[in-house]
Structures are given as C-alpha cells and as structure tokens.
Amino acid sequence: DQQVKQNSPSLSVQEGRISILNCDYTNSMFDYFLWYKKYPAEGPTFLISISSIKDKNEDGRFTVFLNKSAKHLSLHIVPSQPGDSAVYFCAARSETYKYIFGTGTRLKVLA
Amino acid sequence: DADVTQTPRNRITKTGKRIMLECSQTKGHDRMYWYRQDPGLGLRLIYYSFDVKDINKGEISDGYSVSRQAQAKFSLSLESAIPNQTALYFCATSEPDRAYEQFFGPGTRLTVL
Predict the structure, then answer these.
(1) Across the interface, do A103 and B45 touch by the CB < 8 Å criterion?
(2) What is the DSSP string of B62-89?
(3) pLDDT given for residue A1 in this prediction
(4) Cβ-based contacts under 8 A for chains A and B
(5) Partner A contacted by B90 (CB < 8 A)
(6) Minimal CA separation from B9 to chain A, in Å
(7) What is the pLDDT of residues B36-87, one digit of tens each?
(8) Beta bridge partners of B37
(9) What three-state secondary structure class fits B90?
(10) Which of A34, A53, A100, B112 fits as disulfide partner to B81, beta carbons 3.0 to 4.6 Å?
C-alpha cells in the first residue's frame, strides 16, 4: 500500500513557465515532507523540505506547499529552466523516523 | 572526491550467489541508509543505522543483511541473490539534527540472472 503517491509519472513544461509537481499521502502522522531531485546516473539530491506545522516553504525558485487537510503537497518551480529536467521524488517522515518515498515524477523543461 | 561512494557501480550475478555492496562516506555522519529503487515503485528503505551499534530494518529487509563496520562504512549483503532483487541500490547518510536531508551515493545497478 503506497503511503506516498505521485500520480503523474511525467510532466512537460516550457522554459520560463511554472512547473507544479504534486504528491499525496495517506498517513496523518507524517511530520516532515521533502522533495529530492534526481538526474540520470546520479543519486537523489535534497531540494527542499517542509515541517507539518507549516503550509509553505520557499527557497529561491522552489516553493513547497502543504495542505494537511487534503494530505497533499506540491512543489512549484518558477521560472522553470532546462537544467530542472530531472526526476522529482517527494518523501515523508513517519513517526518512527523512516522516510517513505513516492514513485517520482519526470519533469522535462522544454527550451 | 565524492562524499558518499558506492562499490561496485554495476554488477551482474547469478541466482544463488552471495553479493556485497559497499558504501563509504567522508561526511562524518552518524546515520546511514540503504534503499533500492525499482521502476514504478520509487525508493524503498532496506536498512538504516543511526550509529555503529544501532541497526534497524526498513520496509523491505527480507533477503538482505547489513554490516556497519565503522562510522564511515555500511555494507549491504544479499546472502543468496534472486532475480527480483534486480534493482538500483542507493546508500545515503544524514546528520541526526538534519535527518531529512539525506546525501545519496551514485547508486549500484545490480542484475541477478
């Protein structure tokens, strides 16, 4: 049973426009949420995080929004750049401090 | 030099063979993790270690064992490899007070025939 879901396997966006990646979760006890970016032949790299007590966290072009009532988080990238093309994983921290990852969304930013 | 290294980067083996994947880190982190990535399933936690004497099972530990030889080294073993263990394996590290920021190695692609 997938506790963290990324329902869009892929997304294409024009350079300069906004990319919105979505993630849904089922466990209301998750207390921390994160996004990782992964390029081919490399390990994932940490991008941004948000605590469950907040609803927004911003870091440069990247903003994560958390809607606890809907058990939904999203990553906004504005403006999107070709170098942002990668697979993005959302993850959530459980009450036992384990991290549960989603299945990933492949973002392609078109020049 | 990379902070988290994994050896080998690629390995092809046969069913029933014993395989060890090694992970080393120079970040000085206490926490280390092993994940596997399968198409359509994302990253799943196999084992994690909060320090040399603290090793814990993750979501999918059956068929795997680990050894934390030192703070910097964390090895994953497949005692008797089977084809459904074919996957991309990642090692990761983190600091206790920033555990959400995990630093991943480049991965080991394992194929079990």
Answers:
(1) no
(2) TT-EEEEEETTEEEEEESS--GGG-EEE
(3) 67
(4) 51
(5) yes
(6) 10
(7) 999 878 899 999 999 999 999 998 999 999 999 999 999 999 999 999 999 9
(8) B43, B88
(9) strand
(10) B112
Contacts of A11 (CB under 8 A, 6+ apart): A19, A21, A105, A106, A107, A108
For residue A90, give the nearest of A106, A103, A77 by alpha carbon.
A103
- What residues in A contact B43, CB-CB < 8 Å? 44, 89, 91, 101
CB within 8 Å of chain A, chain B residues 8-37: 35
| Tokens matching residue A92 | 């959530």
Is B43 in contact with A44 (Cβ distance < 8 A)? yes
Query: Average pLDDT of chain B?
Result: 93
Pairing state between β B10-13 and B108-112: parallel
CA distance B94 to A10: 29
Rounded to the nearest 10°, the torsion over CA B54, B57, B62, B67 is: -20
The reply to whether B43 touches chain A by the CB within 8 Å rule is yes
Nearest to B47 by CA among B107, B101, B91: B91
